[in-house]
Amino acid sequence: MNESIEGVSEHPSTHIRIVAAVVTDQSGRVLLVRKRRTIYFMQPGGKVEQRETPLETLAREVNEELGCTLLRAEFLGMFCAPAANEPGRIVEAMLFRAEIAGAIKPGAEIESVAWIEQSEVGGLTLAPLMQFHVLPLVRAWKSS
Q: Which domain holds residue 100?
């Protein structure tokens, strides 16, 4: 078996390697996006292109999806979850706690942007990565 970053196994036919930004504001709300023709809210991010580092991918995706500049990013770890928009596949996400600058202007592929409190999650359909990994991280930050 091939091993990838942080020991996550690589299965090219079923696994999708992505980077994603966990962006929070001063009050602890989390920034979510929903791509066009989808129902799931998730963190900004996407697939690493050839010859890109994960941080270059993160900066590109933040700019493409939000029209913002990536100021800082702290690596949080690798997390796996069922892919929200590709049934039968698994995302291997390199999550970064990110600080961005600029007014948010959703890009062409983004249908909706939302800042949410933990208590507001009930009315949204969340991507599994968001539901099972990102929200628990944010809860831990808020309680510390």
A: 5-143
- Output the pTM of the full model: 0.87
Tokens of 13: 């036919």
Query: Is the per-residue pLDDT at 135 higher than 60?
Result: yes
The CATH number of the domain holding residue 81 is 3.90.79.10
Query: H-type helices in the chain, by residue range?
Result: 54-66, 128-129, 135-143
Residue of 3, 42, 37, 1 lying closest to 19 (CA atoms): 42
Residue 89 to residue 38: CA distance in whole angstroms: 16
Q: Is residue 116 over pLDDT 80?
A: yes
* Structural domain count, the chain: 1
Is the pLDDT score of 7 beyond 60? no
**15-22 sheet: strands from edge to edge:** 45-47, 15-22, 90-101, 69-82
List C-alpha distances in Å: 90 to 9, 78, 81, 94, 103.
Answer: 11, 12, 6, 13, 32
Dihedral over Cα of 60, 66, 72, 77: its sign: negative
